[in-house]
Amino acid sequence: MSEDLPYLNTRETQIVKYLIQGLTNTEIGKELHLSVHTIKYHLGRIYQKQGVSNRTLLIKAYYDRRSE
Fold it and tell me: Which of 3, 2, 28 is closest to 15 using CA atoms?
């Protein structure tokens, strides 16, 4: 997965994996034992690194890169 979305660290890659599965921030937090605030923080960094502004565009970028 990290090759599909470059520049992400392990935690960020885990969060993206759960996003792709359709989990909410609250559900991701429960899975990773993190607060919703921490999930939002990581998402902000992920969006910045990937040049997107929301989860829909992030998931689209993931699938676009996989099909290349």
Answer: 28
Asked if 61 and 50 count as a contact pair (C-beta separation under 8 A), the reply is yes
Task: Record the tokens describing residue 59, joined without a space.
Answer: 């998931």
Q: How far apart are CA 4 and CA 62, in angstroms?
A: 6
Task: Report pLDDT digits (tens) over 10-65.
Answer: 999 999 999 999 999 999 999 999 999 999 999 999 999 999 999 999 999 888 88
Structural domain spans, the chain = 10-66
Contact 1, 13 (CB under 8 A): yes
d(CA 45, CA 47): 5
CATH of domain 10-66: 1.10.10.10
Cβ distance 32 to 40 under 8 Å?
A: no
